[in-house]
Specification:
about 90% helix, about 80 residues, mainly alpha
Amino acid sequence: MNMLARAMVLGLELGFLIAIPLIVFLILGLWLDRKFDTMPLFVIVCLLAGFAAVIIEVKQVILPFLEKRSKKNDKL
């Protein structure tokens, strides 16, 4: 697979890696706030946890891609 195709797949993967955890954590926060009547406490806490999860996941996906790219450029 060429570099452009890998970059496009990476972009699609990153879109899902960012959107899915944030949506799940938002729904969880809304559900907890409704259950305990603490609106917006759990929404804020869950969104912060979601952002942390996104940062970790994106880092795990991006770093290997960048390392492969830099090794390929070093060989040229």
